């Protein structure tokens, strides 16, 4: 499978280049989508195809810039926590669209095992107030990063035993 290994190495190289160069900068949304595809393709190989994904970019034609790796913690949480011991094939749906011409909506939804209700409350409290008993490193980091980059952004999580959905609303006037 030399071709498969070569393709995976090319994707890993692209992931590393995107991650390392110009840290904490903004990139075109299309570049971030390309990074997500490479990342998820490698993870599919790692997890032996136990999940699939779709990325729906409904912002075509708009030149939108976002901070790098903004959605990475949501993707990783879905793969590691949402799909762990899942009796069915995992499914990720990522969507990017403009809502009412005023906000960019970035959404990551999975069909994983879900998050307990008390933890959902703590995560939403973290996202709205910046203070919570929630101790997850990835989501805490994204809460602080997002508020620092986009002060009037909003993040919400909803969950059930059939999956979890994270939504980030970023005001268009706060995007670089």
Characterization of the model:
The protein is an alpha+beta fold and 176 residues long. The protein has helices at residues 2-20, 29-46, 72-82, 117-129, 137-149, and strands at residues 26-28, 51-57, 65-67, 90-99, 103-110, 154-160, 163-171. A five-stranded mixed beta sheet has the order 2-4-5-7-6. The chain is globular and about 50 Å long. 27% of the residues are buried.
Q: Please report the total strand number as a whole number.
A: 7
What value does the average pLDDT take? 89
Q: What distance separates the N and C termini?
A: 43 Å
| Main sheet attributes: strand count, strand direction, barrel closure | 5 strands, mixed
Order of helices and strands: HEHEEHEEHHEE
Give helix % range. Answer: 40-55%
> What class would the helix/strand composition place it in?
alpha+beta
Approximately how much beta-strand content do the residues carry? 25-35%
Shape: globular
Radius of gyration: 16 Å
- Note poorly predicted spans: none
Q: Strand order, main sheet: write it out.
A: 2-4-5-7-6
Q: What is the helix tally? A: 5
Please outline what is shown here.
Helix content is 42%, strand content 27%. The protein is α+β, with helices and mostly antiparallel strands and 176 residues long.
Features of the shown structure:
176 residues; alpha+beta; 5 helices; 27% strand
Helix and strand topology:
Blueprint: H1 2-20, E1 26-28, H2 29-46, E2 51-57, E3 65-67, H3 72-82, E4 90-99, E5 103-110, H4 117-129, H5 137-149, E6 154-160, E7 163-171
Parallel strand pairs: 2-4
Antiparallel strand pairs: 1-3, 4-5, 5-7, 6-7
Helix pairs in contact: 1-2
């Amino acid at each position: 499978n030399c071709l498969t290994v070569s393709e995976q190495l090319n994707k890993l190289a692209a992931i590393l280049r995107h991650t390392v160069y110009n840290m904490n900068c903004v990139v075109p949304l299309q570049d971030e989508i390309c990074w997500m595809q490479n990342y998820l393709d490698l993870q599919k190989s790692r997890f032996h195809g136990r999940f699939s994904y779709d990325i729906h970019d409904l912002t075509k034609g708009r030149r939108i810039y976002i901070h790098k790796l903004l959605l990475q913690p949501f993707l990783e949480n879905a793969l590691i926590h949402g799909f762990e011991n899942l009796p069915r094939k995992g499914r990720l749906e990522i969507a990017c669209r403009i809502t009412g011409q005023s906000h960019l909506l970035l959404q990551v939804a999975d069909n994983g095992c879900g998050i307990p209700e008390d933890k959902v409350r703590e995560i939403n409290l973290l996202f709205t107030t910046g203070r919570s008993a929630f101790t997850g490193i990835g989501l805490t980091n994204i809460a602080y990063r997002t508020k620092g980059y986009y002060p009037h952004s909003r993040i919400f999580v909803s969950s059930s035993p059939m999956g979890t959905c994270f939504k980030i609303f970023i005001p268009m006037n706060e995007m670089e």
